[in-house]
């Protein structure tokens, strides 16, 4: 396992959008999700999580899913389109939130610096939507709520690997009982992350109403980010960055 600590890639502008996105996610966790304490937490999953079957009109009115012993998410039969956005700012636990915000902190500033603030905000939301679409496509009738910024942040990592593949990233290496701090190129650590998501996601294809990690959201976000940054970044500047 490789955990990135920081990259050797300074920016020349304050990454206001990256910092704002981190702040919004943290505030949503504290204010809307009760910092993980019930009943606010489970109610936020029902209200703001994205449910494939609900979004595509495959769930009948009154149908529900049991989240806890005393809470059932009930569906009214009409698609909750707002969850395409709100689900990006919800999380399933403290570790989920901290992990996502850590990766956004490390890699988001450089992508924002390359694209500019407005393009980066558009890019982030677009990657989140692409991630949701990828996960929905794997189970269009799912009644399991999907939450997390992982798909959008996967897009950030996809863009980073295109923009800065050779940048050295200080990382914490766990190999059985061996622990060390090493430096590796971004293309390696992010490539390993993507391969891990792909190998974990393939066995889940065809399964129904599965819970756990939304691997295909990660994959979809990463691929979308790698492709979208090529469209948003001027070619000459892209070539300069990759030298």
List the helices and strands and how they pair.
Blueprint: E1 2-7, H1 16-31, H2 40-48, H3 52-55, E2 64-68, E3 71-74, H4 83-86, H5 94-115, H6 117-138, H7 150-163, E4 168-175, E5 178-185, H8 186-201, H9 215-232, H10 235-242
Antiparallel strand pairs: 1-4, 2-3, 4-5
Please sum up the structure shown.
With 243 residues, the protein is an alpha+beta fold. The protein has helices at 16-31, 40-48, 52-55, 83-86, 94-115, 117-138, 150-163, 186-201, 215-232, 235-242, and strands spanning 2-7, 64-68, 71-74, 168-175, 178-185.
For the biggest β-sheet, the strand order reads 1-4-5
Task: Flag low-confidence runs.
Answer: none
| Helical content band | 40-55%
Return the average pLDDT rounded to an integer.
89
Number of strands: 5
Rg calculated over all Cα atoms: 18 Å
How many strands, which pairing sense, and closed or not: the largest β-sheet?
Answer: 3 strands, antiparallel
Decide which structural class fits the backbone: alpha+beta
Beta-strand content = 5-15%
H and E order: EHHHEEHHHHEEHHH
Provide a descriptive summary of the structure in words:
The chain is of the alpha+beta class and 243 residues long. It has helices at residues 16-31, 40-48, 52-55, 83-86, 94-115, 117-138, 150-163, 186-201, 215-232, 235-242, and strands at residues 2-7, 64-68, 71-74, 168-175, 178-185. Helix 1 (16-31) packs antiparallel against helix 5, helix 6 packs across helix 7 and helix 8 packs across helix 9. The strands form two sheets. Strands 1-4-5 form a three-stranded antiparallel beta sheet. Strands 2-3 form a two-stranded antiparallel sheet.
């Amino acid at each position: 396992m490789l955990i990135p600590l920081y990259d050797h890639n300074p920016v020349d502008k304050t990454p206001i959008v990256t910092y704002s996105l981190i702040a919004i996610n943290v505030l949503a966790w504290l204010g809307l999700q009760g910092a993980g304490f019930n009943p606010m937490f489970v109610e936020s999953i029902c209200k703001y999580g994205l449910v494939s079957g609900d979004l595509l009109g495959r769930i009948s009115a009154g149908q529900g899913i049991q989240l806890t012993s005393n809470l059932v998410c009930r569906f009214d039969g009409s698609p909750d389109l707002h969850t395409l956005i709100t689900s990006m700012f919800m999380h399933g636990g403290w570790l989920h939130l901290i992990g996502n915000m850590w990766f956004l902190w490390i890699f988001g500033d450089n992508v924002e610096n390359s694209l500019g603030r407005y393009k980066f905000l558009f890019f982030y939301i677009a990657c989140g939507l692409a991630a949701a679409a990828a996960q929905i496509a794997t189970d269009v009738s799912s009644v399991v709520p999907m939450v997390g910024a992982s798909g959008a942040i996967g897009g950030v990592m996809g863009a980073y690997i295109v923009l800065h593949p050779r940048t050295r990233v200080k990382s914490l290496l766990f190999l059985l009982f061996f622990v060390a701090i090493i430096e590796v190129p971004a293309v390696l650590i992010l490539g390993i992350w993507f391969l891990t998501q792909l190998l974990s996601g393939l066995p889940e294809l065809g399964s129904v109403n599965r819970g756990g990690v939304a691997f295909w959201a990660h994959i979809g976000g990463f691929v979308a980010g790698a492709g979208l940054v090529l469209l948003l970044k001027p070619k000459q500047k892209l070539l300069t960055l990759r030298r």
